[in-house]
């Protein structure tokens, strides 16, 4: 996949543990991320998954479906990600940076010094 992002809680929460306020924040944040991923010129859709049974933190995954790849429709995106050739890292890094910058502008937060994580 051209871009795979993960959103996770800093503290130990599962989906059912979220307060109504945190659930609302998760919904708004998820919507912002989807908008920014889908704004990339070569992306058709952002698929959103909750994966990670038994993990220490809530994990929400965002898989970007490349434009013109109709065979990748549906819920098999994580499987396709394991089967397709590796996407160029420099393009994926640039896309992740563009999404992070757009998210800081639209939602708030900051990118970490390592540029690999964003804090909201």
What report would you give on this structure?
This is Diadenosine tetraphosphate (Ap4A) hydrolase. The chain contains three helices and five strands. It is α+β, with helices and mostly antiparallel strands and 120 residues long. A three-stranded antiparallel sheet has the order 1-3-2. A two-stranded antiparallel ribbon has the order 4-5. β2 and β3 (59-66) form a beta hairpin. α1 packs across α3. The chain is globular and about 40 Å long.
Short description:
The chain is of the alpha+beta class and 120 residues long. It has three helices and five strands, in the order βαββααββ.
Please name the defining characteristics of this protein.
120 residues; alpha+beta; HIT family, subunit A; three-stranded antiparallel β-sheet; 5 strands
Topology of helices and strands:
Blueprint: E1 3-8, H1 20-38, E2 43-50, E3 59-66, H2 77-83, H3 89-106, E4 110-111, E5 118-119
Antiparallel strand pairs: 1-3, 2-3, 4-5
Helix pairs in contact: 1-3
Mean pLDDT figure = 83
In whole angstroms, the N-to-C terminal distance is: 25 Å
The second-level CATH architecture is 2-Layer Sandwich
Percentage of residues assigned to helices: 25-40%
The CATH superfamily label reads: HIT-like
Strand sequence of the main sheet, in spatial order? 1-3-2
- Can you count the helices? 3
Work out the strand percent.
15-25%
Gross morphology:
globular
Count of the domains: 1
Task: Outline the low-pLDDT stretches.
Answer: none
| Structural classification | alpha+beta
InterPro entries: HIT-like_sf (IPR036265)
Protein name: Diadenosine tetraphosphate (Ap4A) hydrolase
Organism: Streptomyces mirabilis
């Amino acid at each position: 996949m051209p871009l795979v992002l993960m959103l996770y809680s800093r503290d130990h929460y599962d989906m059912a543990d979220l307060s109504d306020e945190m659930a609302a924040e998760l919904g708004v944040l998820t919507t912002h991320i989807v908008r920014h991923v889908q704004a990339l010129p070569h992306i058709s859709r952002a698929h959103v998954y909750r994966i990670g049974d038994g993990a220490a933190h809530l994990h929400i995954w965002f898989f970007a479906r490349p434009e013109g790849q109709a065979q990748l429709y549906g819920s098999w995106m994580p499987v396709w990600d394991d089967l397709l050739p590796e996407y160029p890292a420099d393009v994926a890094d640039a896309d992740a940076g563009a999404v992070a910058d757009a998210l800081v502008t639209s939602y708030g937060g900051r990118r970490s010094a390592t540029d690999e994580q964003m804090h909201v």
